[in-house]
Amino acid sequence: MKALYAQSGGVTSVINASAYGVIDEARRNGLEIYVGINGVTGVLKEKFLDATELDIEFLRYTPAGAFGSCRKKLKSESDIEKLFEIFRKNDIRYFFYNGGNDSMDTAWRLQMEAQKRGYELKVVGVPKTIDNDLPHTDHCPGYGSAAKYIAIAMMEAALDLRSMYVDSTQVFVMEIMGRHAGWLAAAAALGWVNGIGADIVLLPEEPFNKDEFIAAVDNVVSKKGHCAIAVAEGLKYPDGFFVSDMGFTDSFGNRQLGGVGFTIAGMVRSELGLKTHVAIPDYLQRSGRHIASATDVQEAEMCGRMAVRYALEDNYGVMVTMERISDDPYEIRYSSVPLNLVAEQTKMLPKDYFDKFTVTEKFFRYALPLIQGEFYPPFKNGLPDYKLLDLK
Amino acid sequence: MKALYAQSGGVTSVINASAYGVIDEARRNGLEIYVGINGVTGVLKEKFLDATELDIEFLRYTPAGAFGSCRKKLKSESDIEKLFEIFRKNDIRYFFYNGGNDSMDTAWRLQMEAQKRGYELKVVGVPKTIDNDLPHTDHCPGYGSAAKYIAIAMMEAALDLRSMYVDSTQVFVMEIMGRHAGWLAAAAALGWVNGIGADIVLLPEEPFNKDEFIAAVDNVVSKKGHCAIAVAEGLKYPDGFFVSDMGFTDSFGNRQLGGVGFTIAGMVRSELGLKTHVAIPDYLQRSGRHIASATDVQEAEMCGRMAVRYALEDNYGVMVTMERISDDPYEIRYSSVPLNLVAEQTKMLPKDYFDKFTVTEKFFRYALPLIQGEFYPPFKNGLPDYKLLDLK
């Protein structure tokens, strides 16, 4: 009787802490724990790694998916058939899937299929997404660290801008991940708690009005001489059209995508004649383990442990959730929600967390506890001593 | 009799550590130390800050120019006339200018003009540039921290890529600062010392050949399935034309600049049909104080102190330099070089530090000592407790 753990979807800087939690808790409870390489993609090829004796300490501080992730959605009947053949052959009776919305859909699908086939399988989802957009949980492991990364990056860039604006760049734009929800972009304002942060935050939840935006930048610049802007890649016009569609193709004929930062900066340059700079942290924001939130690392590990405990208590077909009991002092309680209530749902930033181009006090109360504490990785040769498994 | 310190040019995460060194050393030696706001731009407006009693502890850990920087070049006779009027009026007899190539030109100009006018002024330059391209010094304060930032960012992004390549992104491109020299882009390979880094490094020193580049990417991807690329913004074709010129204007009619990362990614997409992601850390790499090199912070401070000591020893009209005595154990000695030998010169990456798309063992021996040690800023509310002066 084996337990299987696998990672899925876009990675985070603390997903491996959840792996650590699952593996350690499984071993403490006498489960034979295996890991699928590259999520269900590897499971379909029987690519397993026996983790019963694996040295797992490195999982607590190494970012990204140590066991490989995947984007695969389980759609075809033959894939599902194949998967259950493999489960049966290996006597896999527990499946812990660590991912976001799509992965919870896969987990749910497998739980249903197991029931249909009369195959005893206990599936528990471990939440993970920097996007923080899973419903029925206060927040998601991975978000706190990405939010901390973004808040610090914006503080440092804003200090840079403040030094240079007199006769160089006046407007700095940082393009932040988040195609659907603005949780991450909003984090660019958190630095204000220490005196410096994004002056303007452009969220997918707030339809973009160019005239109002330009007026807002003009207003900030006329007051202090410079303006730091955070823009979510999913920023949309009122008609739902993405602002990131730059309206042209590059020299190789490819449609220019993902350039919302450049689009926004271009508007500022042409409308206000100001000098601009654009940063796109891209993967850096989701794998920036060197500045992870200690709270996030601990919670990611605990979500992994809870998944195992729930399965052993016969609470399965669920995803682990966190319920907030109190903001200050910060306190959460672990709980669970049926997978089908999470699958393919998206939690947007609540309306009272933002106000036009800024975030509200309510957002600060929500987000600040999630970025508390530093848990630095060990260093060797002046660089983090991250470890790699051979996944071939 | 006063001493004046000012910051100039693009900032770094440790330029304030040099300010700390200058101010503290000046005070220890009984000098009345003033700081010019926004470099010579502020000095021309008599915008001074009396630093004789200033609490300067925050300068050791706050990035960017705490006193404001500028891009101004002293060209006009009337500006120079004005400056000496102000110097005379305030009895300024020492001038410490903290900057890069252009700033050392300004410092040299002022030293010459003082001599011409029979005005007793001792000018000493304090080196600073993340570009690391000042001649006659082994390296420049600011470089070690930016190099450390870039090495870590590339390690983390490469781990991310390695997790995702099976059915998502195969090629990651990071666009790195450096219009003339490839010192910073080369740092993206340093992570290999701990097992992961950039597979391909594109430097301004190596004329870009698209066919060879595409073949190199194809080779890496066919071997391991994914490829992490670092590209310097100053990458050029053999005819000197910048690769970053994307060959089109944006929807607002502005020429699209600084997009070398997107250009390179576009080539990979269209020639090899691989999925790509692009990161542009921009200001984040030069103001990323949260992950500064302790060696760099200490040396930046010491360069500031040495500037004061040299001036007091009547060794002026010079810039502070660092001479390397040994790589292992790492040892340097402080020295000085006449300002006119530094002004407007650029030190390129030596030919034996790189080899086509990679860096050599020699570069590792050179760069690794510069990124050693961590000197974290203090944290408050989960974020660095950076301090801001009111510069108005």
From TrEMBL, chains A, B:
Non-allosteric. This is Pyrophosphate--fructose 6-phosphate 1-phosphotransferase. The record marks 102 as: Important for catalytic activity and substrate specificity. The active site is at 131 (proton acceptor). Substrate binds at residues 129-131, 177-179, 233, 283-286. One of its GO terms (biological process) is fructose 6-phosphate metabolic process. Pathway: Carbohydrate degradation; glycolysis; D-glyceraldehyde 3-phosphate and glycerone phosphate from D-glucose: step 3/4. Its main location: cytoplasm. Its EC number is 2.7.1.90. It comes from Fervidobacterium islandicum. GO terms for molecular function: 6-phosphofructokinase activity; diphosphate-fructose-6-phosphate 1-phosphotransferase activity; metal ion binding. The keyword Transmembrane helix does not apply. It catalyses: beta-D-fructose 6-phosphate + diphosphate = beta-D-fructose 1,6-bisphosphate + phosphate + H(+). Diphosphate binds at residue 10. Keywords: Cytoplasm, Glycolysis, Kinase, Magnesium, Metal-binding, Transferase. InterPro entries: ATP_PFK (IPR022953), PFKA (IPR050929), Phosphofructokinase_dom (IPR000023), PKF_sf (IPR035966), PPi-PFK (IPR011404). The gene is pfp. Homodimer. It is found in: Cytoplasm. Its cofactor is Mg(2+).
